[in-house]
Design goal:
about 250 residues, alpha/beta, TIM Barrel, 12 helices, 7 strands, about 50% helix
Length: about 250
């Protein structure tokens, strides 16, 4: 919940101008009221626009809410199930499952967030927690449809969000394997599951992002506070570009 509309548009244009890289997918997700100015500022830059949330119904008596149909034309991506939505608004996996359906119906590319609390990490139950969230949010959906919609999973350990404390690259890499294995186990199959990118989110900075990208199962980042700093974003995207080129070269 940062920036007024005019400020958001100016910031988006600045970030877009400093993060040009053909091998990196870049998406900026401002608050609802900033979507139009950010969209306009990003025309022709190659940077996409995403919304931070969407309602689980197509329309109706839901004052103050925004439907997927309303977002069409303003955004092409949407974040679902962010830990702050779960914490502050009580969003459940079942509700997020319904939001996913609405997003896919109108062609929004979903970024589905999962992650454990500190007590769950300390109890070594993080794998079960994240697997349970994935099953709850994805069960009942047609795998082919969701994969073709471009599903992305963002692993955001709740204890590392906005705290300055991040999970280790090894933690994130291990969780990416849990994500892929769980999705495959839903009947999607290993090949389909492998097509779903996994991002790391949680106090991501230009200083630690490179370490996370050494993990082959991590494909990028869901950037929080650092996204308000053009210098940080420029460095993060530059590092992502180096990693993308290295992985392509290694694949032959």
């Amino acid at each position: 919940m940062h920036t007024a509309p005019a400020e958001a548009g100016a910031l988006a244009a600045l970030i877009a101008g400093r993060t040009q890289h053909p091998d990196v997918v870049r998406v900026l997700c401002p608050p609802y009221v900033c979507l139009a100015p950010v969209r306009d500022a990003l025309v022709g830059t190659g940077v996409a626009v995403g919304a931070q949330n969407v309602h689980h119904e197509t329309a109706g008596a839901h004052t103050g809410e925004v439907s997927a149909l309303m977002l069409a034309g303003l955004a092409t991506w949407v974040i679902l199930g962010h830990s702050e939505r779960r914490r502050e608004f009580g969003e459940t996996d079942e509700l997020i499952n319904r939001k996913l359906a609405r997003a896919v119906e109108v062609g929004l590319r979903p970024i589905l967030c999962v992650g454990e609390q500190l007590a769950e990490r300390e109890a070594a139950s993080q794998d079960d927690v994240v697997a349970g969230q994935l099953r709850g949010c994805l069960s009942g959906h047609d795998p082919a449809m969701i994969v073709e919609a471009g599903l992305v999973i963002a692993y955001e350990p709740v204890w590392a969000i906005g705290t300055g404390r991040s999970a280790s690259p090894a933690d994130a890499g291990a969780m990416s394997q849990v994500v892929t294995r769980t999705i495959a186990g839903l009947g999607w199959g290993r090949a389909q599951a492998a097509r779903v990118p996994v991002l790391y989110g949680g106090s991501v900075t230009s200083a630690n992002f490179g370490d996370f990208m050494t993990e082959p199962g991590i494909d990028g980042a869901l950037v929080g506070g650092a996204s308000l700093k053009p210098d940080e974003m420029a460095a993060i995207v530059a590092r992502a570009g180096v990693t993308a080129q290295a992985r392509r070269a290694a694949a032959g």
